[in-house]
Design a protein that fits this description.
The protein is mostly helical and 414 residues long. Helix content is 64%, strand content 3%. Among the domains are: 179 residues, no CATH class; 88 residues. The two termini are 20 Å apart.
């Protein structure tokens, strides 16, 4: 439900024109985020979304590994038209990245939506380079697409889910090109995936970011309930339960309401700190099993109960779903790294491997979700790799992730 809601909001949220001037009235030139926003503005000015739609239509007819001369001409025109935007986005990747948003949740959509296009743009722009035999440049753009998606995915849990779709799509594209890469290009893929897996995960960064930037929204919401005066919006248009909470808070003394606000602030921070701590100490396979604070149900009668209700309204949500998605993305990176290592080994030695043990890299072939080797099978000259997965994910392969029904319903697999 979380992913469905995110995608629905993405579809209806209207992009804002000229975000750079609004977001960066005094640009520093030292923040990669500035370049991403500048590139997104240029993307919209050139109306590149229409060009990408045409490329997608062409690909749906003939595929993208062996394009016809006509479609290759279309892709070359797109590469020329988008070259400036590509340069700006890659320049952003070369700089440190400092998120600048002061909103969380659905409020991030107007800002994140156009930035999401940059990862897609870099992925599409790579096609013409692979078609023209410039695989090194194609790899550079695909790894650049991953960097954009992983960086922006750490803004909020909503952006983590949206950009995660781009991560999966780019990993899939990279894997399809592995057999045609040189040894040095394969080494670049292995090195990138290894470094990405060592970095703080975008999911953890998104939660830490929400804890920080969501505090202002929390304070505003708490004041609505505990200001000591009737809130017309809550009483006329709010949910019945929230109206009851508001009236209960009004019945308390001013010092009781202040105490509830202080306690709620501490509790909210504890909820976020607890989840972040669990993500650090838990095995990755159990990330989706971190307990979530339930929604409050009873109307508070005491200061302590009011504090708990207010804190739970702003506790981290969707932990089971988001935890499973994080596990899937990390596993897809491991599978990409392993597949690149297999192809690199075969090109170096001239021998095809029948078993993963031939790599003599036990740490690489071990799936941390199961503590057993990744699943491997030969399909002609290709290798099919997968993870048995965790209880919440089922079997994991490289590809665009489609959530299983038990995840959408908030359940784990039996």
């Amino acid at each position: 439900m979380i992913l469905a809601s995110a995608l629905m909001l993405l579809a209806i949220a209207a992009p804002q024109a000229g975000q750079f001037v609004r977001l960066f009235p005094n640009p520093t030139g030292r923040n990669g985020y500035e370049e991403y926003v500048r590139a997104a503005d240029e993307f919209r000015r050139l109306n590149l979304s229409l060009d990408i739609a045409r490329l997608t239509e062409v690909r749906s007819r003939e595929g993208w590994t062996r394009p016809t001369a006509a479609s290759l001409a279309v892709r070359r025109r797109f590469a020329i038209k988008s070259a400036g935007v590509v340069r700006i986005a890659l320049r952003g990747n070369s700089k440190p990245f400092y998120p600048i948003g002061t909103e969380s949740g659905a409020a991030t959509f107007p800002r994140i939506r156009p930035l999401r296009d940059l990862s897609l743009l870099l992925r599409e722009a790579s096609d013409v380079h692979f078609s023209d035999g410039r695989s090194g440049e194609g790899v550079r753009l695909l790894l650049g697409s991953l960097t954009v998606a992983r960086r922006l995915g750490g803004e909020a849990t909503v952006s983590f889910l949206l950009m995660g779709q781009e991560v999966s799509a780019t990993v899939r594209r990279l894997e399809a090109h592995l057999p045609r890469l040189s040894i040095s290009e394969l080494s670049a893929v292995v090195a990138y995936a290894t470094a990405a897996l060592r970095e703080p995960d975008p999911y953890r960064r998104s939660l830490a970011r929400e804890k920080l930037v969501g505090s202002a929204e929390f304070e505003e919401s708490v004041l609505e309930f505990t200001s000591g005066s009737i809130n017309d919006a809550l009483q006329s248009g709010g949910e019945p339960y929230f109206r009851e909470v508001h009236l209960s808070a009004l019945s308390m003394m001013p010092e009781q309401r202040r105490e509830a606000r202080d306690r709620a602030r501490v509790l909210r921070n504890q909820y976020y700190a607890s989840v972040l701590h669990e993500l650090r100490i838990r095995p990755e396979a159990t990330w989706s099993e971190i307990p979530e604070q339930g929604w409050p149900e009873r109307v508070p009668k005491t200061t302590a109960e009011l504090a708990e209700v207010l804190a739970r309204m702003h506790a981290p949500r969707g932990l089971s779903f988001c935890g499973a998605i994080a596990v899937i993305h990390r596993t897809q990176l491991r599978l990409l790294r392993l597949h690149a290592e297999i192809v690199r080994y075969e090109k170096r030695t001239g021998k095809s491997i029948a078993s993963l043990t031939a790599l003599n890299l036990p740490w690489l072939i071990k799936d941390p979700l199961t503590n057993r080797p990744f699943l491997h099978a030969r399909q002609g000259r290709r290798h099919a790799l997968a993870s048995q997965g965790a209880r919440s994910t089922g079997k994991i392969k490289i590809g665009v992730f489609r959530p299983p029904q038990q995840l959408l319903e908030g359940r784990t697999a039996p």
